[in-house]
Amino acid sequence: MSRTRAFRLGTFVVASVAVLSACSSHTAGTPSTSGTGSPSASGPSRSAPPVPGALPTDALIANPCNGLSASQITTVGLAAPGAESQSDTGPTCKWRSAAFQLNVVYISPMTVNKNGLSDIYATKGNFAYFEPTTVDGYPGVYASPTDNRSGGDCQLWVGVSDELSVSVSAQIGEGPNKTNPCPATGRVATAMIDHLQGRE
């Protein structure tokens, strides 16, 4: 199995497990707009930190390649344009590195989940590593069902509203970040938050 297929399969498995724990009262494909209200008794507890303010995500969900501005793509070292695709977990945008052909970054809104980052927290036992963080003031967690960070893979989940989390993942096959990919993933996630806030 190729590294790309294995890495994206990990994303699919995590999101699929999370949706099984999500509140069953939501209609598929219809995100909740309840803000920070109390969770349903049938849903997972909101164990993730609350989002300080829901970000506008319509454009991101419509096409995750809207997650970065043209100038940010250049600043973080990616090559435009990104390539949009669809999967069972939601839409995805993939960018290649401008300098290293083997290096790729994905931004994937997890529209299949309806409880945002709390769906990730609810399944934390399925992860090989689980390290909470913040991204420009927004709650996040570095987590993946397999730990291949030393081999160049890093996945970061960011809560952009209490109903939506975004997976930002990097596969670094060459270059100086290969053995320490998470800071690069964090830079992309920070750029995405800045863009969603209208600051870039």
**What CATH architecture would you give?**
3-Layer(aba) Sandwich
* Main sheet: strands, sense, barrel: 7 strands, antiparallel
State the helical fraction: 25-40%
Q: State the name of the first-level CATH class.
A: Alpha Beta
Low-pLDDT windows of residues: 1-45
- CATH topology grouping: Protein Transport Mog1p, Chain A
Query: What is the 3D shape?
Result: globular
Return the domain count. 1
Please count the beta strands (DSSP E, at least 2 residues each): 7
Organism: Amycolatopsis acididurans
Region (Disordered): 26-56
Keywords: Signal
Protein name: DUF3558 domain-containing protein
Secondary structure elements and their pairing?
Layout: H1 3-21, H2 58-62, H3 70-75, E1 78-87, E2 90-97, E3 104-109, H4 117-121, E4 129-135, E5 138-144, E6 153-161, E7 164-171, H5 182-196
Antiparallel strand pairs: 1-2, 2-3, 3-7, 4-5, 5-6, 6-7
Q: Summed up, what is this model?
A:
With 200 residues, the protein is of the alpha+beta class.
State the main characteristics.
Protein Transport Mog1p, Chain A; disordered N terminus; 5 helices
How would you describe this protein?
- The radius of gyration is 16 Å and the shape is globular.
- It has 200 residues and is an alpha+beta fold.
- The chain has a 7-stranded antiparallel β-sheet.
- The N terminus is likely disordered.
- It contains 5 helices and 7 strands, in the order αααβββαββββα.
- The protein has one domain: 3-Layer(aba) Sandwich (Protein Transport Mog1p, Chain A), CATH 3.40.1000.
- This is DUF3558 domain-containing protein.
- It comes from Amycolatopsis acididurans.
- Keywords: Signal.
